[in-house]
Amino acid sequence: MKLSLEPTRFAAAVADAARALTTRPPVPVLAGLKLEAAAGQLTVAAFDYEASVQAVLPADITRAGSVLVPGRLLTDITRTVKGKNLVDLELVGPRLVLTSGSTRYTMHTLPLEEYPSLPKLGDAAGTTTGRDLAHAVAQVASAAGRDDTLPVLTGIHLTVADGKLTLAATDRYRFAVRSIDWTSTSNTTEGQAVIPAKALLDSAKMLADAEQVELALPTSQGVFGMAGPARSTTMRALEGQLPDYQKLWPTEFEATATVDSEELIAAVKRVALVAERGQPVQLNFGQDALSLSAGSSDDAEARDRIDAAFDTVTGVPLTIAFNPAFLLDGLSAIDADAIKFSIVGPTKPALITGATKDGSDLGDDALDYLLMPIRLSK
Questions:
Q1: What are the structural domain ranges in the chain?
Q2: Is there a contact between 8 and 82 (Cβ–Cβ < 8 Å)?
Q3: Do 296 and 329 meet the contact criterion of CB atoms below 8 Å apart?
Q4: Bridge partners, 166 (sequence order)
Q5: Confidence at residue 244, expressed as pLDDT on a 0 to 100 scale
C-alpha cells in the first residue's frame, strides 16, 4: 500500500473514525483503525462490536492495499501533521511509514486478518438534513438516562410516521420530544428504533454538515445505520421501547407563563449556586413576575426575580420546584428567545416549551420538555 493525501482531510477522517474506538477493547485488534486504499480513495474505519464508523477521502494511490494500525497513535499523529505538505503513507513489511515534509513516523501494524468484518449498512428508509438531525438529537439527548442497569432509558427513541422523524428520550424524571421533516426513500413509511443516546449524538455531530443524511432502520440483526456523502456509521439498537409520551402529556393547565430565555437561564444559574445536592430551585409565579429561590435560612440562601408575561392566571400565585440541573438542561436545549411554562399543579409534571419574543408558540415540531417537579415539604 502506498498513497498520498491532503493532511487536513486525513486528520478529519481519522478523528471521525476514532469516535468508534473504545478505551477498553474486548480484543486487541479493535484498538486499531483500518485503512483501505482503493479506487482513488482511502477509507478509514473503526468498530467496537457496538458501533462502527467509516470515513472516506480522496487519495493519490500508487499501490492499493489495506492495513490495521493503532488507532489512538494515528489520531495523535494526524493532529500534529499540518501544513502544506502532503501526507505520504507506505506499508513497508510489517510497518506503516507516514511522512510529511521532514517529519517521518514509523508505526507497527496489527494483524489485519483478525479484524472482524464491519456491519453492513441496510437499505435507507429515508433522509433528512444533517443540520436538523444534529440539532434535534442534541436537544433530546439531555433527557436520556445514564443508568446502564436500565439500558432502554439510555437511548433515544426514533419514530418514523406521516413524513416526520420524531425523537424522544426520558430518564423517568423528564421527557424530551422533538420532530423534524423526513423524506421516505423506500416502501417503509413507518418504523421505530431505540438507539444509544451517546452513539447517536456523536454520529449526528459527525454528519451535521451533510445536506442529506440517509437513515437505515434496524435490520434483523438489530443494526441501525446513518450515511452522508463521505461518512457512514452503524449502531446496535437497544431492545425495548420507551413509554408512550402521548399518554403522559398534559392538555389542561392551571397556569401558563412566558419568560425571556436569557434572563431565566441566568437567574436559575444564580440561585442554583446555593442549592446543595438534591435541593430544588423554587419558582413562584405571581401576577406579573417570576420569583426564584433556593437554599434555606439555616444555610446559604438565594432569591431572584424576573418579569413574566402570563397568558393564564387562574390559580396564581403558584409555587413549583425543580431539580436545577434538570431544569437548566431543558432551558438550554429549547434554544428559543422565550420559555413558556404550562403548569398543571405544583406536584404534576410541567410542560416547558419555546416561544418567540412576542410569546407565540414555535409550532408542533419544536422541542417539548416535560419535567417532574420536586415535592416541597410543608
A1: 2-114, 126-244, 249-371
A2: yes
A3: no
A4: 159, 179
A5: 87
Least Cα distance to 376 among 302, 293, 306, 291 occurs for: 293
CA separation for the pair 24, 34 (Å, rounded): 18
Q: How many CB atoms lie within 10 A of CB 263?
A: 16
Over the stretch 304-324, which tens digit does the pLDDT of each residue have?
A: 999 887 765 565 678 999 999
Q: How far apart are CA 237 and CA 171, in angstroms?
A: 18
**2-114 has which fold?**
DNA Polymerase III; Chain A, domain 2 (3.10.150)
User: pLDDT tens digits for 66-92?
Assistant: 999 999 999 999 999 977 899 999 999
Q: Nearest CA to 140 among 201, 69, 89, 52?
A: 201
* 126-244 CATH: 3.10.150.10
C-alpha cell at 145: 438516562
- Can you tell me the distance from the alpha carbon of 146 to that of 189, in angstroms, rounded to the nearest whole number? 31
DSSP assignment of 38-54 equals ETTEEEEEEE-SSEEEE
Alpha-helical (H) ranges within the chain are 7-17, 71-80, 130-141, 197-206, 261-272, 324-334
Question: Residue 198, Cα to own-chain centre: how many angstroms?
Answer: 6
Give the start-end residues of each E strand in 209-296: 213-216, 223-227, 231-236, 255-260, 281-285, 289-295
Architecture of domain 249-371: Roll (3.10)
Provide the β-strand partners of residue 355. 338, 361
Backbone angles phi, psi at 165, to 5 degrees: -110, 115
DSSP 297-313: TTS-EEEEEEE-EEEE-
pTM score over 0.85: yes
